[in-house]
Amino acid sequence: MDRSFDALVDEAAAAPVDGWGFAWLDGRATEQRPSWGYQRLLGERLAAAGAALDLQTGGGEVLAGAGPENFPRTMAATEGWPPNAALATRRLHPLGAVLVASPADAPLPFADGAFDLVTSRHPAAVDFPEIARVLAPGGSYFAQHVGGRTNVELSAFFLGPFPVPTAREHEVEAGLARAAGLEVVQCRNERLRLEFSDVGAVVWFLRKVVWTVPDFSVDRYRERLRALHERIEREGVFVSTMSRTLFEARKPAA
Question: Is 10 buried (19+), middle (13-18) or exposed (0-12) by CB count in 10 A?
Fold first, then answer.
């Protein structure tokens, strides 16, 4: 028997959203993956580094999954949201990585040229001048970014038509990196399919990925959620489109 709208919404509203894992969506949403395999590439970059910094590490899931055997002798990570910082500390400290609590929009609390590798998966903010500052000459920034126009279909369902920001378009980010003195090595973008199979999956996703609908709450958007539930009941899934960018830049050696 199909579960009721209220049951689906109430379950998702009560489920924990700390960390940066998405296992709660298993069987309820499907996400097309980028072709390049970021976590494997991250492990390769870490294994070749002497000192590395992972920015906005979330709960440390991706960094830990890249393999502690690949960690360089100096491995640090930052995270600004206290619940995630606590999770990352518990996960990464036993693996030899130091977690530094630091807001995403604050200057990095590290010396100039401290790292030969800076990484990040899905950073909420990208401060290229700060990244360039903490990179040693010849060092690299390697990341997977959430690209521009990600989930505009989902955002528009709740917010209506709105001007789509361009700051996260990959061409714009490449220009910002160059303006900070970095040489762009690669900037690959892919558009990917995301399917939600029930309204509870959407509720949980919006609670976790808060920038999709910035003022989201179940009470505020209950009628739109009900309309979405009815649409999924008719059509089987709600489809949105993600954008992912594999970004690599290098600080000149001289």
Answer: middle
